[in-house]
Write a structure and sequence with these properties.
Length: 118
């Protein structure tokens, strides 16, 4: 039984979903905030916050663990050197989702901005 094990499916296959979350997380780490659909932002929130929690303790093992999830050396370096030190004293809640009023023009999807809190 899968009681309480909800995962945002995003209408794609598991390999596509994994690649999508990985790329969104890399963009979020490098740019600090990104604009995407509301559902993708909610799915990204848990993925990105787990990465920041791991990165708060800078060790070789943690760097390798994050690298296995992101597969991008520059994003891992930026996460450990610039993003994670800002959240050393914060117990969680590293991201914020701001819902935008206007839907996307092409398909009317609800959009939002996901960003790290300051």
């Amino acid at each position: 039984m899968r009681h309480g094990n909800y995962k945002y499916k995003l209408g794609v296959k598991p390999q596509h979903r994994k690649a999508l979350l990985k790329n969104l997380a890399i963009d979020l780490i490098e740019h600090g905030k990104i604009k995407t659909t509301e559902t993708k932002a909610k799915a990204l929130r848990s993925f990105a916050e787990k990465l920041v929690t791991i990165a708060k303790i800078d060790s070789v093992a943690n760097r390798r663990l994050v690298f296995t999830k992101l597969n991008n050396a520059s994003a891992v370096k930026f996460l450990f050197e610039n993003v994670a030190p800002k959240f050393k004293q914060r117990p969680g809640g590293y991201t914020r989702i701001l819902k935008l009023a206007d839907p996307r023009v092409g398909d009317g999807a609800k959009e939002s901005i996901i960003a790290f809190v300051e």
